């Protein structure tokens, strides 16, 4: 179904999570991540509409197994009924690239771009008029704020958490710049339109 961002439980969850994060020096990149979570959330046009669907919530290679031509998924504890589409795709790529291959953000972004450019993705995006950049930003805001809260409560962080935090920090910076460029382009267009 479709709803405005501000009317979704998903957005309320993001706002609550970001408010609960503290400036914790014990968690690497924590201060920068919090600053960029706030910057990116402030750039979201919450009156925009998003298409929502069921999400597994932790769609990763280690939460599935194939049997013949069937794919079985387990570990549904993070599943939600109304999440912006492509959430699971973004999560699969981030988690796989970071935790299996120790990829940096540039490789992750290239993987996401590669999947989004596929004809089947483009058909879905065009048919439902999906703002893929918006859905990507919403995924980052939700996922990063959720896990950062968990990591701030842990006494000992394993090495892979540092990998995740570094990639997330870079992803947030990337998306903040993208949103600012989009807003600047729109403002310039409107200014130019009315000065003709």
Give the terminus-to-terminus CA distance: 40 Å
Helical/strand content category: mainly alpha
Q: How do the strands of the widest beta sheet line up side by side?
A: 1-2-5
**Share of helical residues:** 55-70%
Strand content: 5-15%
Mean of the pLDDT scores? 94
Give the overall shape, derived from the CA principal axes: globular
Extract low-pLDDT stretches: none
The number of helical segments is: 7
Work out the number of β strands: 5
Radius of gyration: 17 Å
Task: Summarize this structure briefly.
Helices cover 61% and strands 12% of the residues. With 196 residues, the protein is mainly alpha-helical.
Verbal overview:
Helices cover 61% and strands 12% of the residues. With 196 residues, it is mostly helical. The strands form 2 sheets. Strands 1-2-5 form a 3-stranded antiparallel β-sheet. A two-stranded antiparallel sheet has the order 3-4. Strand 3 and strand 4 form a beta hairpin. Helix 2 (30-43) packs antiparallel against helix 6, helix 2 packs parallel to helix 7 and helix 3 runs antiparallel to helix 4. It is globular and about 60 Å long. The model has no long low-confidence stretch (mean pLDDT 94).
């Amino acid at each position: 179904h479709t709803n405005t961002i501000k009317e979704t439980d998903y957005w309320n969850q993001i706002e609550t999570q970001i408010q609960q994060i503290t400036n914790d020096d014990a968690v690497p990149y924590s201060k920068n991540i919090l600053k960029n979570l706030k910057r990116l959330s402030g750039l979201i046009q919450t009156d925009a509409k998003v298409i929502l669907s069921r999400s597994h919530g932790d769609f990763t290679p280690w939460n599935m197994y194939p049997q013949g031509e069937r794919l079985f998924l387990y570990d549904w504890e993070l599943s939600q009924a109304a999440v912006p589409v492509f959430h699971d795709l973004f999560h699969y790529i981030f988690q796989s690239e970071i935790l299996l291959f120790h990829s940096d953000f540039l490789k992750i972004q290239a993987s996401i771009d590669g999947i989004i450019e596929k004809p089947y993705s483009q058909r879905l995006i065009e048919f439902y008029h999906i703002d893929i950049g918006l859905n990507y930003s919403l995924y980052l805001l939700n996922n990063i704020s959720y896990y950062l809260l968990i990591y701030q409560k842990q006494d000992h962080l394993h090495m892979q958490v540092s990998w995740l935090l570094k990639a997330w920090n870079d992803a947030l910076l990337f998306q903040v710049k993208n949103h600012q460029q989009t807003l600047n382009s729109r403002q310039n267009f409107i200014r130019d339109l009315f000065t003709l």
